[in-house]
Amino acid sequence: LRGPGGARQTQFGPDSLTRIYAVTSGKGGVGKSTLTANLAVALAARGLAVGIVDADVYGFSIPGILGLVHDGVAVKPTRVDDMILPPVGYDVKVISIGMFVDDNAAVAWRGPMLHRTITQFLSDVYFGDLDVLLLDLPPGTGDVAISVGQLLPHAEVLVVTTPQPAAADVAERSGVVARQTGQKIVGVIENMAGLPQPDGTVLELFGSGGGLEVARRLSEGQDAAVPLLASIPLSVALRSGGDAGAPIVLSDPADPASVAILAIAETL
Ligand code: ADP
């Protein structure tokens, strides 16, 4: 697809039938990639055509979570002429910066280079007709988030946060930046919530209340309230499934974290 001046156009423009969700967070390590990958697998298991653009340039972990890393090396996309065919993990088509850098090299790119890469991911990668495209954004409010906001102003945004009230500030900011580019925030997902203990108590390692707090703040002054979509508990199985490249929504759907993720997938 080429637009005026020969510039490539994304197949994911405002007229496309693909629902686009950008998954964002205030800071790293809150489980954004883990949830994006498991949500994608859950949607694909429902028979939807699903793709992920892993735009988390600093922590490109989607290929590993979806079993597309072997001996530390990510599966490479296939090239046909100037078309890039994305690898497929658990029926999810995936493109990631991690597939283009060698030996787990760090990505130290400035904004224009990042913008070009994201533009190329959205225009030169042959995803075919997708029902759902998920974008795993880097944490925070940097260049990639702004590029995605400009390229896909009609994308809907999912904000991931931990239950720590102190994390609410940064999570709120990432949502606000998305909204400034016109994107709609569909909801907040709280991750790493209480872990049930054998004695019946709940270990709230990361506190509580952060998800509701972010949802409340992002709802202020809006016509429609931003909901807290789910609170996903800490889960050893979710973590080890991510490490092993075996998403738990398939391997362990009864785990409480899977149950919560599958419930979100039903609402998307
Ligand atoms: P982010 O994309 O926000 O940087 P990741 O998805 O890479 O975060 O998750 C960071 C680490 O936390 C990973 O090791 C992941 O397996 C683990 N993790 C994520 N969510 C949970 C959870 N609910 N319970 C236990 N570990 C989790």
UniProtKB/TrEMBL annotation:
Residues holding ATP: G26, K27, G28, G29, V30, G31, K32, S33
GO molecular function: ATP binding
Keyword Iron in annotation: yes
Keyword Metal-binding: yes
Keywords annotated in UniProt: ATP-binding, Hydrolase, Iron, Iron-sulfur, Metal-binding, Nucleotide-binding
Subunit structure: Homodimer.
Annotated function: Binds and transfers iron-sulfur (Fe-S) clusters to target apoproteins. Can hydrolyze ATP.
Family: Belongs to the Mrp/NBP35 ATP-binding proteins family.
Record protein name field: Iron-sulfur cluster carrier protein
Protein species of origin: Subtercola frigoramans
Residues of the full protein shown: 103 to 370 of 387
